[in-house]
């Protein structure tokens, strides 16, 4: 980064950019909508003490307006952050977590020198990340750079030339062929041995998304964005990304919504996982950003507050007005899968909602719906427990699927409905060994991970299915319904062409799964 690339600012104009843009003629897109101004208040140094946000009158009068998060209702005047969080939920969701902030901090330190007295804070991490790859549909400009400003007068010396999105001139996304190169840079960064070249590729590829694990965003030839999840030096005995690919395949086999994904083998023991970004919509005609809200924001939870999956079900009922029945059924299946595969890293930022059009027309209204499932990772018992409780009676260190079954009313399910969902989940999870072998996970590693797949919980779910569906065993799979298509601009793309043929072709550097085409097609 150069000195021009890191600028410490205290306020931004906030835009909502959900209009489709045609790659061949960007000027055809609807202009991003200036929706308000965000101002930061700092404590010691750059540590964020609080923030304020004010919607523009134009946005409040717009027929397409919606509250960008529950803690920012559509009212006139300044709104101030509460005691539990210095940043409103919508902006916290657009801010990178441990991995991304670590990269931004490292780049800043390299530029300014270790003796620089100020450490970057949460507001700086929000505005310094890559505009191209930032999560969701919010974009930022410095006040006064666009001719009109929601934040008032510009800072002295600010240019009034053609406006630029913050960081847009500094960053691109990585190339899909860079997977091995990025993985090597990650390994050196984790050992505090990163070179300037390493920091350059990690800085533009890896700083925009949440989570603590290494990751990067890559861009395909059509402009589509994909998340590249990478191995970590902390993985030790297991191929973490191969196990996540296994879990996503099991979810898809259970009829649950997951993004398209593909495993890329880096060497005999390590892989990276390529996952299509669901906060972007791309096809051959247009591309657009998609609004995103985490479950943590939707439930208005502070850092020290807890909630249960039944609380999330209540929130789904309130938030997803157009799809609540479908989304509640989906969530029931996801909770069951989470228990049966030992996914303990299911914190509330690992669930979310996307802003979807309610019709096929580009001008149709939008509403929230449950996002595709993500960050599903089988974990052996005894790992650091961060799991969410099913209900208030659940033990998060020993979750019980029977509590999910007993609480099915929270998901608007009858006994038979619940049994049908569990039948699909148990049939899918019952194939976990075969699915793992498909990704070339060795027999020793499979046995090492076997305790993650809780046999007792599986039998509880299986018994309920047998009792209520009059089947002999759900482990004998009937025809499983296809995974529902994730629409692009309101329309399913069943005939969508594949990208990255060099990565998606079977052979070296890619899974040779006989089911690979199923993984990649809607």
Automatic annotation (TrEMBL):
Region: Disordered, residue numbers: 141-160
The GO molecular function terms of this record are: protein serine/threonine kinase activity
Species this chain originates from: Cryobacterium arcticum
Spell out the protein name for this chain.
HipA-like C-terminal domain-containing protein
The HipA-like C-terminal domain is annotated at: 207-429
The UniProt regions of compositional bias labelled Low complexity, in chain numbering, are 143-160
One GO cellular component term:
cytosol
Alphabetic keyword roster: Kinase, Transferase
Q: Family per UniProt?
A: Belongs to the HipA Ser/Thr kinase family.
